[in-house]
Amino acid sequence: xxxxxxxDENKQLTGNKMVRNDWxxxxxxxxxxxxxxxxxxxxxxxxxxxxxxxxxxPGHWEVSGGGVMAGETSYEAxxxxxxxxxxxxxxxxxxxxxxxxxxxxxxxxxxYFVDIYKFYMDFKEEDVKIQENEAAGFKLATRNEIKEIAQxxxxxxxxxxxxxxxxxxxIFLIGFMGTGKSTVSKALAKILPYEIIEMDxxxxxxxxxxxxxxxxxxxxxxxxxxxxNLVTRISKSLEDGKKxxxxxxxxVVVRETNRQIMKQCGKIVLLTAxxxxxxxxxxxxxxxxxxxxxxxxxxxxxxxxxxxELYKNTADFAIKTDGKSAESIAEEIFVNLFK
Length: 339
Hints:
Number of helices: 11
Number of domains: 2
Largest sheet: 5 strands, parallel
Number of strands: 14
Radius of gyration: 24 Å
Distance between the termini: 38 Å
CATH superfamily of the largest domain: P-loop containing nucleotide triphosphate hydrolases
CATH class of the largest domain: Alpha Beta
């Protein structure tokens, strides 16, 4: 006999268990289920068709998923369900937890949370081994094809999970120097199948001189021109399906042109940190020309105040980085992409 853990209305374990599919739950009791969406690099998603013998929604299309067994984590459950239902191992795939939703069905005595996972991995059709008592077949479908199936009322849970089928945008990390943009970019690239672009380093490589020397020789306006040129090129690369995580220079938001281009082609994430944290991170750097001779907490705070409104007005969302690991910040960004 299989059991599920019982959770409270805040998704906290109660320590109690229930028999799987024994729908006799109290109003404040919930069980946990999972759904796993897999996207290939060609933009196609793996979906399966339920067998006609199913008592509920026979012949409908869906993604892999099921109940989380007692003592099992949400992630362990989605890995197991995908392996059982389509024969794929997603433990090495990029992606991860995306979001959750909650359903209360008092009449049916079936209340539950659903954890949604989005995975990115390439596989061949012959790699897919469907569970024949569960699925009648499978399909590699585009996001538009899935939307069309849903419009016919034949795709389960679509309205609840449709955000995971959206096309991922370019990601621009903005913020004052020292907020962790470069470090977070590397952590985020372990979750998303994206290329990293270090804006400042790219400019240095192309100009064949350090940023401090560019400022000294040509002035700040010239440097801002180089930033605008690079942002424009990144925007155009999206048309070719090339996804980027861009670690932006601290002053990229100064120009309205840059802000408009970034908003048109991507999600803009503001990373923040306190002046003290920033000073601790940049005090040993000689590549911060705007701080030359003014490497103090007070001066950093004044500079931050000048750009604070620009950053906030430009960003789609903001994340505090003080005291957090790069990995946890990257996971927070990933979750926010689906909101």
